[in-house]
């Protein structure tokens, strides 16, 4: 029917939701360490718009050429450049196919 589904991951993004996990004073202690680590960790997205990288990139692709067993991650280089990194998901293809066939059966009902 022309419907496609893909999995995206925005990476670790510091937002209002993140700040509610720990008390404010702990974030003030942790932030310098997190910024140092972020230079060597691609999954830590520094720029707020960087978290959209995988979603925007995915929107621009032809869905029939995408791998359904891949998760598309928003990443940031040490210099702050945003990019998308496809990573194979640990999914049993036989089980995935059985679930898909079951969905098709349910759709017919």
UniProtKB/TrEMBL annotation:
**What keywords were assigned to this record?**
Membrane, Transmembrane, Transmembrane helix
State the GO CC annotations.
Answer: endoplasmic reticulum membrane
Q: What Gene Ontology biological process does one annotation of this record name?
A: cholesterol biosynthetic process
- Spell out where the chain crosses the membrane: 24-45
Instruction: Name the InterPro entries for this protein.
Output: 3KSR/17beta-HSD (IPR052834)
- Lineage, top-rank taxon, reads Eukaryota
GO molecular function terms listed in the Swiss-Prot or TrEMBL record: 3-beta-hydroxysteroid 3-dehydrogenase (NADP+) activity; 5-alpha-androstane-3-beta,17-beta-diol dehydrogenase (NADP+) activity; estradiol 17-beta-dehydrogenase [NAD(P)+] activity
Question: Do you know which PANTHER family this protein is assigned to?
Answer: 3-KETO-STEROID REDUCTASE, 3-KETO-STEROID REDUCTASE_17-BETA-HYDROXYSTEROID DEHYDROGENASE 7
Recorded protein name is DHB7 reductase
């Amino acid at each position: 029917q022309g419907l496609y589904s893909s999995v995206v991951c925005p990476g670790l993004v510091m937002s209002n939701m993140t700040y509610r996990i720990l008390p404010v004073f702990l974030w003030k202690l942790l932030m310098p360490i997190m910024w140092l680590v972020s230079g060597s960790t691609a999954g830590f997205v520094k720029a707020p718009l960087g978290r959209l990288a995988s979603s925007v990139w995915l929107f621009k692709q032809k869905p029939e050429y995408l791998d359904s067993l891949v998760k598309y991650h928003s990443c940031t280089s040490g210099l702050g450049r945003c990019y998308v990194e496809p990573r194979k998901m640990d999914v049993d293809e036989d089980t995935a196919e059985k679930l898909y066939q079951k969905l098709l059966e349910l759709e017919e009902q």
